[in-house]
Structures are given as structure tokens and as C-alpha cells.
Amino acid sequence: MEGRKGRLIRSLRVRLCLFISLIGVLFTGLFCVRSYDTALEEIEAYVDEELSQIASVVIDYGLLIPKRWEEPLFRHGLLSQGNQGNYLPRRGMREGIAVGPVPSLGDLFFRHQEIIIAPIFSNPGEPLYLPAGVDDGFYTILIADKRVRAYVATNHSGVRFVVARPMALVESLARRALFAELFEFLFLIAVFIPSAVVLISLMFRPVHRLALSIYRREKSDLSPIVDEVPSELDALIDSLNRLFRLTYESIRNERRFIADAAHEMRTPLTALSLKAQNFDEKGLNDEQLKKLLGIREAIRNQQELTNDLLTLARSQCKDTGSTKYEEINVRELFIEILDALGELADAKNLDFGVAGIDVPTVVSSRSILRTVLMNLCSNAIKYTPAGGKVDLACFRERNRCVLSVCDSGPGIPEQELKKVFEPFYRVGGDTSKIQGTGLGLAIVKASCAELGAQCRFKNRKEGGLCAEVLLP
Questions:
Q1: What phi, psi does 110 have (nearest 5°)?
Q2: Within the chain, what is the greatest distance between any pair of CA atoms?
Q3: What value does the CA radius of gyration of the chain take, rounded to a whole number of Å?
Q4: Which of 105, 112, 141, 361 is the most buried if burial means most Cβ atoms within 10 Å?
Q5: pLDDT tens digit string along 102-123?
Q6: What are the percentages of helix, strand and coil residues in the chain, rounded to 5?
Q7: Measured between alpha carbons, how far is 267 from 467 in angstroms, rounded to an integer?
């Protein structure tokens, strides 16, 4: 049999869940990456705009760029304000006293400055961060192995200077944006994948209901499927209904053929039986008489088989809706069966009677119910040893009326209890010494189905078998 892994590989639901989840993860990841790139570009653009505005203030207001500065000449802080994440100056710029060392780009880290305005040249002994002939514009340079964003400008007097700040703010905000996007990504995945699985499971629920309803059907139930299913399954339902219809017609034609054949065989068998019964036995010797008795027995067996075939075919072909129900006196029905089979029971010295009647009347088809009980009692009498006991009873079990036939025979092996209803199946097979056609219990099953009843067998602890018919 196919294992669980193989079923999962073939599962359309699993494939859809994986495909949709993969698409969702891919697009969500791309969206988060794009959002992160956009946030990084906006932060970098903000820093560039900030540096260019500071340079514009120095140029437009003609601020002097002395050779010596108070540390630092300009100080700048950032404050997050509002829901839009705008960063505004917390402290403005202030001009220092022209004393102290000339500011340098190295002050960003060595003196821990946030933003610095310095000449483009470097102090003696300091590394040259920007060459003197560099064009005005934005540059990203390394100072103490750290990235710095610098803006080179020239004032109206031709003095060149640089406005710079470390990229730590950009990197910090970028990390914040990255963590925010990762959180959004994980949150969307945590919501999207389970939602997709639940939604697909709900969409496939009608398919599971349909499969379960077909699985729970009786073997003989070939009625059309009328369940409401998604329109994508209409073609499948139409094909199944067509298959059911063709199968039903095939089985019905087969049963009609059996019924017709059995009916056609009854007339010649009856004629042969009459001739065999009327044959003059006086002029026959012992051997001839034995052969005559054998012929009569064979004809009788064939008549029994033909009658059983005809009864079974009629039960299977009969429309359940045409069954006529009536109120039946259980005691009278039991007495009728006792009278019909009394001679067979007396021939084996059996105690054949009624154990009890707790329900006086039932509503059912008298003829069909009589056929069921006659077959059950006939089997019980055949298989019960001489001197045994066969009892009829009627009682109530969980709001259902139960008719039972219990005997003191050998019972039926547990592994064969489900097979006894198959046509031509006999307990013990061909080696059984009990004469029979093997159709009696098949007739019982078909008749019970026609009544909407249930037939069950169970072995008794004290020995013997109990056959019960549970009426609806």
C-alpha cells in the first residue's frame, strides 16, 4: 500500500499550499527588500539635503570661515518628531570664537562631532582626506575606517570648505528599517501561510464530504449523486452518475436474465417432477428404484435452486418504493412459520417454538418478512443437530423492533460471518453434508435491504447461532 509520504506528494491540497506559500513568501520578501531600499535611499537623500542646506546657509549669509575655531563651530542634533519619521535640528548652528585649532574632518571621530564644517585642507600631520582640486559635490570617504558623507562647496569669496557627518546615523536608521521590514515580513508569513492552508482546506471540504458520502454508500446503492459541489467538479459528478446508471442497468439486465431463466426452467422441472412422481415403482428392482429416487432428489434440488434464484432476482430487481407496508401480528406470523416448517423440525426431533413476544405488532411487508424468517428458520433447522432447539422471538432494542431466530447448532466461525450473505457461499464449502443452494442468506440480505432492515448474526456463548432482523 502507498505510504503517507506518497499520498502527501500526490496531494493537490499540499501542492496548492506549497505553491501559494512560495509565491506569498517570494513576493512578500521582494516587497520588504524594495521597502528597505526605498527607506535607505530616502535616508541618504535626507542626509545629502541636510549637508547641502548647511553649506547654503554658510554661503548665503557670508559666514566667515576662520582659520581657527572653537570646538566645534557648528553642532547639530537630530530629533524624531511626528509619525512621519522626519528628523529636525534640535539645536541650531552657533559661531565660535576664532581661537583653538583649525577644525578637521578627523574631529568627527577623534572629538566625537556630529556635523562639522572645515576647510578642505587638513591640519599639518593629518592625513589628506580630500584632495585640494576635488570638484564641488557629494562624496563618501573613509575616516578611521568609518564611512563619512561629505559635501564640498565654494563660497562667494572662492574659499572652499567641506560639510561632513558620519554615516553612523544612516546605518542606524537603515538597521532600524531593516528590522522593521523583517518584522513585517515574518508577521505577514505567520499570517499568510496558515490562512492559505485553512482557506484551501475549507475549499476542499466539499470534495471530502463527497468522497465520504460515496465511501459510506451500500454496495447496492447506485443512485445519482445530488450533493452540491463546486462547479469545477460538475464534469466528475456527471461522469460518476453516468457510470452508476450504466452499472445499475447492467446489473438489472443481469438479474432480469437470471429471473427469466429461472422462470423458464420452472415449467420443465415441474413436468419432470410430476413424471418422476407418477412413475410406476412396482415393476422396478432395488437398483432401478434407487436410481429413480436419486432422479427425484436431483429434480427436487434443481427446483429448490430455481425457486431460490427466482426469489433472489425478484428481491434485487424490485423497486424499494413499491413495497407495501401493513400492520403485522407477530404471533400469527410465527405460528404460520411453525406450521410451514414443523414437519422438518419434527423429523429431527427439534424443539421448534416461540421464546417470547414483547412486541405484539410490527409495520412491514408481510410477504417479504415471511420470506426472511422462513429462510432463517430453514437454515437453523438444517444446521441444528437432532434433539436440538430452535426458538423464535420478538423484542425491542433501542427503539427498534428485533425479530430473532436462535438455535443450538454449531454456530458460524467468526471469520466467515461476513461471507455468509454472498450468493452460493456455504459454511464448510462443498464438504458440508447439509443440502442447500447457498442462496438462502443472500435472499435474506436482499429482502432486508428492500425493507430497510438490517440482518446480523452472532454466536451465542452457550453454543449455537442467533440471527436477528432489526426493523426500521
A1: -75, -30
A2: 160
A3: 50
A4: 105
A5: 566 666 666 666 787 877 766 5
A6: 50, 15, 30
A7: 34
For residues 348 and 342, give the distance between their C-alpha atoms in angstroms, rounded to a whole number: 10
Contact in structure between 150 and 164 (CB atoms under 8 Å): yes
Residue 92 has pLDDT above 50, yes or no: no
Q: How many residues does this entry show for the chain?
A: 472
Q: Residue with C-alpha cell 443452494?
A: 437
Residue 99 identity (one-letter amino acid): V
Residue type for position 431: T
Burial bucket for residue 271 (CB in 10 Å: 0-12, 13-18, 19+):
exposed
Q: Taking the chain, what is the end-to-end CA distance rounded to the nearest angstrom?
A: 38
HSE-CB at 61 with a 13 A cutoff on CA atoms is: 11
**Distance, CA of 208 to CA of 50 (rounded, Å):** 64
* Cα(77)–Cα(91) distance, integer angstroms: 6
Q: What is the pLDDT of residue 88?
A: 40
Phi, psi of 422 (to 5 degrees): -75, 140
Q: Are 385 and 423 in contact (CB under 8 A)?
A: no
Indicate the residue type of 176: R
Where does 290-348 show beta strands of DSSP type E? 326-329
CB 135 within 8 A of CB 151: no
Alpha carbon distance 105, 165 (integer Å) = 9
Structural contact between residues 185 and 32, judged by C-beta atoms closer than 8 angstroms: yes
Q: How far apart are CA 383 and CA 380, in angstroms?
A: 5
Output the CA torsion 375→377→382→383 (10° steps). Answer: 110
Q: Are 390 and 380 in contact (CB under 8 A)?
A: yes
Closest by Cα among 359, 61, 11 to 207: 11
Please report which residue ranges of 61-167 form alpha helices under DSSP H: 107-110
* Alpha carbons 71 and 9: distance in angstroms, whole number: 71
Contact 405, 389 (CB under 8 A): no
**What contacts 44, CB < 8 A, 6 or more positions away?**
149, 170
Amino acid at 116: I
**Contact assessment for residue 320 and residue 472, using Cβ atoms and an 8 Å cutoff:** no
pLDDT at residue 318, as a whole number: 58
Per-residue pLDDT at 313: 66
Say how far apart CA 150 and CA 133 lie, in whole Å: 15
Secondary element (H or E) of residue 400: strand 400-407
Residue whose C-alpha cell reads 436410481 in the numeric block = 291
Q: Which residues of 371-394 are buried (b: 16+ CB within 10 A; e: fewer)?
A: bbbbbbbbbbbbbbeeebbbbbbb
Cell, residue 9: 506528494
